[in-house]
Amino acid sequence: MRILLVEDDREISAMLKGYLETEGFEIVTAFDGLEALQSFDSESFDLVLLDLMIPRLSGMEVMRKIREKSTVPILIVSAKDSDSDKSLGLGLGADDYITKPFSVTELSARIKANIRRSTQYSVHKDVEETQGTLNVGELTINLDDFTVCKNGLSIDLTAKEYEILKLLAKNPKKVYTKEQIYANVWNDAYCGDENAVNVHISRLRNKIEDNPRSPRYIVTVWGIGYRLGE
């Protein structure tokens, strides 16, 4: 698996590169935002490990530009640890967020988990290859090619956004708690990280709803979780 490591501190970069290579990853390093985008455009990666505080082009801007053309897993590594920073990072398209200082073993575990989820998403396409489409109001969820259209126009969803929408659409009468959504979509034990679910729900609503403040498709059931709108 190939990782693009974007970190301007060369000592940290060298340390992470050395450790992750012993874990079996192939590492390509970039030390500023422009170099990161040049590497991403010219090579193929399974995950991007991205520091936010980098020169020439910020980590947030790098992530925004990557998300315009790719759903590759992005793991933010940052000294910024406030809830607002995490929400902003996840809202712009990050799959995970780890704050400095961190243990390299935890980082490695997070990387492997995110690559595994991405790989499972790709493999899962074959399982539902012949199950057609789900039609919900103006939305058409294609289970063959993992695309979503609204009134015939394609909507660009990430893997997790698609899986959340499909989960609710396939079980229209069921109310899902955040723990259940996390377990089904992330394929991991829920550790009380409501922020990840909240941010992905918010981002999905912004893409599929006419008015995200008054959602029609993803309805909040206060005190419990979410369900498909009627």
Q: Report the uncertain regions.
A: 122-130
String of helices and strands: EHEHEHEHEHEEEEHEHHEE
CATH architecture of the largest domain: 3-Layer(aba) Sandwich
Shape: globular
Q: Rg from C-alpha positions? A: 18 Å
How many strand elements?
12
Helices and strands: which structural class?
Answer: alpha/beta
Main sheet record = 5 strands, parallel
Tally of structural domains: 2
Mean pLDDT: 85
CATH topology of the largest domain: Rossmann fold
Strand order across the largest sheet: 2-1-3-4-5
CATH class of the largest domain: Alpha Beta
Q: Separation of termini? A: 42 Å
Question: In percent, how helical is the residue content?
Answer: 40-55%
Supply the number of helical segments. 8
Features:
single chain, 230 residues, alpha/beta, Rossmann fold, Arc Repressor Mutant, subunit A, five-stranded parallel β-sheet, four-stranded antiparallel β-sheet, 8 helices, 12 strands, globular
Write a structural description.
The protein is of the alpha/beta class and 230 residues long. It folds into two domains: 2-124, Rossmann fold (3-Layer(aba) Sandwich); 128-228, Orthogonal Bundle (Arc Repressor Mutant, subunit A), CATH 1.10.10. It is built from eight helices and twelve strands. It has helices at residues 10-22, 33-42, 59-67, 83-91, 104-127, 159-170, 178-186, 194-208, and strands at 2-6, 26-30, 47-51, 74-78, 96-99, 133-136, 139-142, 147-150, 153-155, 176-177, 218-221, 225-228. The strands form three sheets. A five-stranded parallel β-sheet has the order 2-1-3-4-5, sandwiched between helices. Strands 6-7-8-9 form a four-stranded antiparallel β-sheet, with helices on one face. A three-stranded antiparallel β-sheet has the order 10-12-11. A hairpin with a 4-residue loop joins β7 and β8 (147-150).
